[in-house]
Specification:
two-stranded antiparallel sheet, 58% helix, mainly alpha
Length: 218
């Protein structure tokens, strides 16, 4: 799950930057995280529900509704709160402002009308699909067609790069052996994290230019 929180937003931010008026940026970014949230239920429900949230079916029965709900909550409450924190004149919060989080106060102006639900819905599906695409080379199974069919990833992705390493936590045994797909997962996390930061800064800079232009015109 940490991979999606720190890196999966990169494709969503790129789409929003390319087509700023055609997508809901909040829904795009949140939907890249939503598929992994169902993993938290593994602590309470014995059955592994990850395969459902990472399937094409899961995009409609899980990612779409949860993204719409979380987008409304984030836009109304969390975004403006983060904006106020990022706007505090303190060196601890300056990085937040540098990457544009101080501009999130504008999210509270969002109107949750028919147009919002249409745009946010297809934004959620597209954001969720980018999550699935990034996961394809970085996991040991392909769960696109779950619950009907779960496939093993191509054999070259399963090649071990280290000695077998099994970790036991209570009654659970976790295979922590470094494989090609786990290495890809790690590299994806690092590379796309920095791409996400770069795109956030790019959006911030573009927003500042628009504000300056508008102030000159007015």
């Amino acid at each position: 799950m940490p991979s999606s929180i720190f890196s999966h937003q990169a494709p969503a931010l790129l789409i929003k930057l390319k087509y700023p008026n055609k997508f809901d940026g909040t829904a795009l970014c949140l939907s890249t995280i939503i598929p992994d949230l169902l993993i938290l239920t593994n602590f309470f429900i014995p059955e592994d529900l990850r395969s459902i949230s990472h399937s094409l079916l899961g995009q409609f029965i899980w990612t779409l509704p949860m993204t719409l709900i979380s987008t409304i909550i984030f836009s109304r409450y969390l975004g403006p709160l983060i904006s106020r924190i990022a706007s505090v004149d303190n060196f601890l919060f300056k990085p937040l402002a540098f990457f544009g989080l101080d501009n999130w106060n504008t999210l509270k102006r969002k109107k949750f009308n028919k147009r919002f639900f249409i745009i946010a819905s297809y934004s959620a599906i597209i954001g969720g699909l980018t999550h699935l695409l990034l996961d394809l080379p970085s996991h040991g199974t392909i769960e696109l067609f779950s619950p009907w069919l779960i496939l093993k990833s191509p054999s070259f992705l399963l090649i071990p790069l280290s000695n077998p390493n099994l970790i036991q936590i209570d009654s659970r045994v976790i295979d922590a052996t470094l494989t090609v797909y786990r290495l890809i997962w790690f590299l994806e996390t690092i590379i796309f994290f920095f791409i996400s930061l770069y795109l956030l800064r790019l959006i911030k800079t573009k927003s500042n230019r628009i504000e300056i232009k508008n102030s000159i015109i007015n």
